[in-house]
Amino acid sequence: MKRFTTLLFLFVLAFGMLVACAEDTDGQAGSGDDSSGGAITLYSPETPDLTKELAEKYEELYGEKVNVHYAGTNVLVNQMMAEKENPQADVWYGGGGILPFESAVDRGIITQYIPESAKDWEVVENGIKMKHEDGYYVGTELFVLGFSYNTELVSEEEAPKTWEDLLDPKWEGKIQFPNPAASGTATLMVLSYMMQHGEEEGWEYFKQLASHANSVPDSGSAPTKAVAMGEAHIAVGFDFMAYELQANGETVDFIVPDKTPILVNPATLVEGGPNPEGGKKFMDFLLEEEAQQILADWYHIPINPEVESKTPLNVENLKDNAVDLDIDWVNENYDRIRNEWNSKTN
Q1: d(C-alpha 299, C-alpha 312), whole Å
Q2: Which of 103, 164, 166, 194 pairs with 204 at a CA distance of 20 to 30 A?
Q3: What domain range includes position 69?
Q4: What is the mean pLDDT of residues 140-160?
Q5: What residue range is the signal peptide (predicted)?
Q6: What is the pTM (predicted TM-score) of this model?
Q7: Is residue 3 part of a domain?
Q8: Which residues are CB-contacts of 293 (< 8 A; sequence separation ≥ 6)?
């Protein structure tokens, strides 16, 4: 009897330990399983090291995992379209400005959310659209389209100051700009000029500009890198591309043209994402000082007035250069203009 009692005790003890181990294993798996809703999935075309830094800062502050999925803007949009029935992302951040976000509104892949800190913003401030009028995206930083130049090959005085200056014969064979058929950066350049001058004058302008270029790469950042390497004197691109290279010791500087597109780079909540509350918290975070400082450290222009830009550019000194963009016209003509680029300029 004593032996039976001992065996029964050992059996109960062993069974209890197995249950405890199983519960412990399940608990650990639940805490690390990204599909449980605890993790936040971020889709972004921005520099991978930048988005990684943002994710790590959020994890440090809030103790919630952020998984970053990097790809080009068009790739991400196509992926979100393919995932509409089973969305995998919670937040989409960045895309070279507002144009991809504007076109995404009618595609049913993003939904409405504006962080509390941006609720009182005007939709358009100083000629710059800061957020979507129906709350489908909010700006996190500013991008300026302009001219990079190699300071060893071009002086500040002779550098172009307007878009028309690029047609000066002295720049023939010395300019690069991205391919508007492939790059959103360049599409913005084309659409902006046509909105101001009309399509007929616009196509004539770009036909001349294309004849001045020694290369028209598909990548939006490639022309600025070519300037840094001395392969071009002048490049069309965004401001941060030049200032980041400058900070790394390259002989590059940047000119803000007299009238040019100045856009917010937005973030948005993905429709039907697996962790909407986490997505909202991450969007809130992007406007907080900690995240804005990271953007500033990467030479982006922060939108939070408490954070100082590390470049000569800020919201206040850019307002007179901002050109008014007719977003409805952009949405109606974006794909057509891109598709017509090669036939109209060759």
Answers
A1: 10
A2: 103
A3: 41-142+262-316
A4: 97
A5: 1-22
A6: 0.82
A7: no
A8: 302, 307
